[in-house]
Automatic annotation (TrEMBL):
PANTHER family per record: ANAPHASE PROMOTING COMPLEX SUBUNIT 4 APC4 (PTHR13260), ANAPHASE-PROMOTING COMPLEX SUBUNIT 4 (PTHR13260:SF0)
Location of the Anaphase-promoting complex subunit 4 C-terminal half WD40 domain: 136-234
Protein name per the record: APC4 protein
InterPro entries to which the protein is assigned, alphabetical: APC4, APC4_C
Length: 234
């Protein structure tokens, strides 16, 4: 330890653990509580050693500001309370702020369509993750909403595109379809059909007419080829 460390510890002990003979006859501890720990107690009692806010620039600023002093946007300060007390107060206010939007949004949302993507055995202990990379895109020009996703396990070479009209009362043709990459990237017809098979690593819309995908070769070997492809929706 350096001399600075020793001095720091000595100052801490001197400040917080001074002997107080006049308190010896009282039950319990007769030295000051550590000032940090009092803020972490989950209780509503006032702090034993509240902080000294004299000279605090923020408090002085609020005191001198006519508009901010009574502003409802500023969270009230409780200098005599612990952080747990302040946390509960803040959580209550946040819950109150979010309740109204939650009620309004909840009443306005309803299911437009439902479709089964896959089924799993009820006896399985843990549900496997079969649904991957959902990416959303809204075509404001055509009022269409798209969802890109892939299904793992037996269809890793496919990317699925779900298309819905933003007006739920209207439907569009080919509401959902799958694009299989498979072997279409083979350089020549002489290549073996099993030599070049690709699966989708990621997919995003590039613009309203184009989808960008990152593909990887499915063979089990080092140096797998990666392909960045742009596919027109048409």
């Amino acid at each position: 330890m350096t001399q600075k460390d020793i001095t720091f510890v000595a100052d801490f002990l001197t400040e917080h653990f001074n002997e107080a003979p006049e308190l010896y006859n009282r039950k319990g501890k007769y030295f000051n509580v550590e000032r940090v720990g009092q803020y972490l107690k989950d209780e509503d009692d006032d702090l034993v050693s509240p902080p000294n806010t004299e000279g605090n620039q923020w408090f002085n600023f609020l005191k001198d500001s006519t508009h901010l002093k009574e502003s409802p946007l500023l969270f009230p300060y409780y200098p005599e309370k612990s952080l747990h007390f302040v946390k509960r107060q803040m959580e209550g206010i946040i819950d109150q702020c979010l309740q109204k939007p939650a009620d309004v949004i909840g009443r306005s949302v309803h299911q437009a369509v439902g479709m089964s993507l896959y089924k799993i055995s009820q006896s399985e202990d843990s549900t496997p993750q079969l649904f991957k990379l959902p990416f959303l895109w809204n075509d404001k020009t055509s009022n269409l909403h798209y969802v890109l996703f892939t299904m793992l396990e037996n269809s890793i070479s496919k990317i699925h595109i779900l298309r819905r009209h933003t007006d739920t009362s209207r439907s569009v043709s080919n509401g959902i379809l799958a694009v299989e990459f498979g072997h279409f990237l083979n350089n020549s017809i002489n290549e073996s059909s099993d030599s070049r098979c690709y699966s989708c690593l990621d997919a995003h819309f590039y613009d309203d007419e184009t989808v960008t995908v990152v593909l990887k070769e499915s063979v089990q070997q080092e140096g797998k080829e990666r392909v960045l492809a742009q596919l027109p929706l048409s």
